[in-house]
Amino acid sequence: MSTFSDIKDKSLASWREIVARYQTPSTWRSVVQLCTTLGPLVLAFVVMYFLARVNYWLTLPVAIVAAGFLIRTFIIMHDCGHGSFFRSRRANDIVGFITGVLTLTPYVQWRRDHAIHHATSGHLDERGFGDIATLTVREYLDLSRWRRFCYRVYRNPLILLGVGPIALILRHRVHNPKSAGRKEIVNVYATNLAILVVFTLASLVVGPWKVLSLYGPAMFLAAAAGIWLFYVQHQFEDTYWAEAGEWDYTIAAVEGSSFYRLPRVLDWITGSIGFHHVHHLSPRIPNYNLRRCHNENPLFQRARVLTVWESAKTFSLKVFDEERKRLIGWRELRRIRASAGRAVAPGR
Length: 348
Prior knowledge:
It contains 17 helices and five strands. It is mainly alpha-helical and 348 residues long. It has one domain. Strands 1-4-5 form a three-stranded mixed beta sheet. A two-stranded parallel sheet has the order 2-3. A hairpin with a 4-residue loop joins strand 4 and strand 5. Helix 10 packs across helix 11. The radius of gyration is 22 Å and the shape is globular.
């Protein structure tokens, strides 16, 4: 019986044949998904507006619903970036830009950075594009005390989910000097201009403070949920990381990405992105085909499954242990350092 480790012995072409059956977008399903996402999103903000006239605090529960539809809007942009939402590239780019404006994300710049993430996921020598910053044990121990402190702060869940969403939104306001070409630079500032126009028009109708007070909490929650999803999709104990000589794209796709088993309603809201192992092997599969691809191919069902409860525990993982090939937490790192110290002591 084959396992993920057998992938190295198979040709990539054979895997392309398997996933090819699921890669063709359905125009009507995509249009329905657009309608069942953007329509409820607008409705949620309308409800929030009228509730705010009674009492602002009544809007916060609805902000959670709006955040869910903002996540789903982002997933549509995500699929457009992979060219998997419509068959037409032009249609993907138009919808991608619009949904990018709604989620404060520059579509073309994000598409480029995310493509690099897919091409280098799990590659220890190519970290830095779309990753949650992760150091190896050796790298962490080589840091100064101050830089270790900064890394510990960064990896704290309160910072990742509390400060992270704001930092992410602000970061998207400027181009990425590491990857931006002319198209990316133009797109970032065109997106900013479009956001400003939409904000101005909405402010003329309901006032600028009302726009910020209604959209702000929903966007913050959506961004926090996005960071959370991205974290658990790659940050689990036995995830895959390898150096250049050992790294393999296909194994990285299926062993370095989790199957995040969400309740059906959350799976719908997140566009089945929990089937991340399938998505990383073939980004051209539309979100509405990911579940079927997983269910119809037994190999995918052997992916590392994370439940909601198990995913909460992944926040204890901090650095990658290159010797043991797994992520570990601070407590285990202290044990490794202590045992290393005992091993060295007799020879002093």
